[in-house]
Design goal:
Elements (H helix, E strand, L loop, with lengths): L8 H20 L4 H11 L4 H16 L1 H8 L6 H10 L10 H14 L3 H4 L4 H11 L1 H10 L6 E5 L6 H10 L4 E3 L6 E4 L9 H4 L3 E3 L7 H4 L7 E4 L6 H9 L5 E6 L2 H14 L4 E5 L3 H5 L5 E7 L14 H4 L2 H18 L3 E11 L8 H10 L3 E9 L1 H4 L4 E8 L1 E4 L2 E7 L1
Parallel strand pairs: 5-6, 5-8, 6-7, 8-9
Antiparallel strand pairs: 1-3, 1-4, 2-3, 9-11, 10-11, 12-13
């Protein structure tokens, strides 16, 4: 992290004001932090070190916002919150801050941090839910891991290059990178700064994708020439990896309710050299009905709380509400029931969520198979931020099976 003293005092004052405005925009208008950063970096003339300070500090303040506002004794976004951040990180106070007031902030930060919900800047109800679902010890480990900065990981696009070649190019550009042993395409970067301006990115040689996220597509068992449906494709992170595993042979129907996200997928697919993806917007239930029993594999990367990816999306925890979690539970089960019908007889259904809560993962899988005997839970896997050091996910793989009809014990039918 860049020390504030490394910046010119006048420029630091300007950047601290930018930080407060960015926090207000993200929290009040629910804008994504990365989008807000893109706007700030494009509309302000900042040096390299100033950009690094802005990016790192914004995410650090987002991770700790509840604590910072409590230390500053304000619910707003002003210079007191920035001073509270200086106090929390034991940086020198601004020249216009009374020493006694700064010392009081440091004392409050130390005292308030004794409370877990305050220390990790999460709502009290969420802290209670985490303990209820995971137990005190596991929840403490997971939320502590999720409170650390996310590591920068990319996935090599093997349709255009090799990991070895990409690493050689990075070395030439003096970009610190090393291969991830457990992943065929994974590369860990020391920093993602400037990575999207490289020719390698523009030419589609890699995509930014967390290490544990890269584990999901291989678990689906997809192969070339299959017909696949990515039912909640979004901007296509996993869709593109599926296409790579399929060696760009076969067909992937990428579904999503957002045309904007599907357009982003089209652009990414073109850059990656992928031609087997057909984006389709879900405009009604007819979209799903028309695809009944048409896919060898259906992937449901379902909407969830996003608690497994708080390191890269720390703002998400401030928007969550208890009723939102309950609504997601119903939506997840509805998607399993509805979208599973797109799978062919003897086909595969894969359900995944970027959450660490069993109620969004294991519980959903069991509820589904208990009420749908034509489906068998073949395997499941939990990815832990505390254990793996990357994002948190749950993945379940189901197979359609033959079941006996109640009116004829000697006959079977694939449902």
């Amino acid at each position: 992290m860049v020390h504030p003293n490394a910046l010119d005092p006048d420029r630091l004052t300007l950047i601290s004001e930018m930080l407060m405005e960015a926090l207000e925009s993200i929290i009040i208008t629910n804008r994504h932090a990365d989008k807000e950063l893109q706007t700030l970096l494009k509309t302000n003339d900042l040096s390299g070190i100033e950009k690094e300070f802005l990016v790192v500090t914004l995410y650090d303040m987002l991770r700790n916002l509840r604590l910072l506002q409590a230390v500053a004794q304000t619910p707003g976004f002003n210079s007191y919150v920035y001073t509270a951040w200086l106090a929390l990180r034991n940086y020198p106070a601004n020249s216009n801050v009374i020493p006694e007031h700064f010392e009081a902030m440091q004392a409050r930060a130390a005292e308030l941090s004794k409370n877990r919900a305050m220390k990790y800047s999460i709502p009290d109800w969420l802290d209670a839910l985490g303990v209820q679902e995971l137990g005190e010890e596991v929840w403490e480990r997971e939320i502590a891991a999720l409170h650390t900065p996310a590591q920068a990981v990319i996935r090599t696009n093997l349709l255009k290059t090799t990991r070895q070649e990409l690493l050689r190019n990075f070395k030439t550009m003096r970009i610190e990178a090393k291969p991830l042993v457990d992943l065929e395409c994974g590369i860990l970067l020391s920093s993602s700064a400037g990575i999207f301006k490289t020719n390698e990115f523009q030419d589609g040689h890699f995509e930014m994708q967390d290490a544990n996220s890269q584990m999901i597509a291989p678990l689906t068992g997809v192969k070339p020439k299959m017909r696949v449906i990515d039912a909640c494709a979004g901007a296509g992170g996993k869709t593109l990896q599926l296409a790579q595993i399929m060696n760009n042979k076969g067909k992937i129907i990428a579904l999503d309710t957002s045309e904007k996200k599907l357009e982003a997928l089209r652009q990414r697919a073109a850059r990656a050299g992928v031609s087997i993806i057909e984006p389709r917007q879900i405009t009604s239930t007819k979209t799903i009905k028309r695809l009944k029993e048409s896919a060898d594999m259906v992937l449901i990367d379902a909407p969830c709380t996003g608690l497994g990816v708080l390191r890269r999306n720390p703002e998400a925890k401030y928007n969550l509400k208890p009723e939102h979690v309950e609504s997601l539970h119903k939506q997840q089960q509805d998607l399993l029931v509805s979208y599973s019908r797109m799978t062919k007889p003897n086909g595969t259904l894969v359900y995944s969520v970027c959450s660490i809560l069993p109620s969004e993962g294991e519980a959903q899988a069991r509820t589904f198979v208990e009420s749908h005997p034509e489906w068998r839970l073949e395997s499941e896997r939990r990815f832990s931020p505390a254990v793996d050091g990357f994002d948190g996910f749950y993945v379940a793989l189901f197979k359609r099976q033959e079941v006996k009809l109640e009116n004829d014990s000697n006959s079977t039918q694939t449902v």
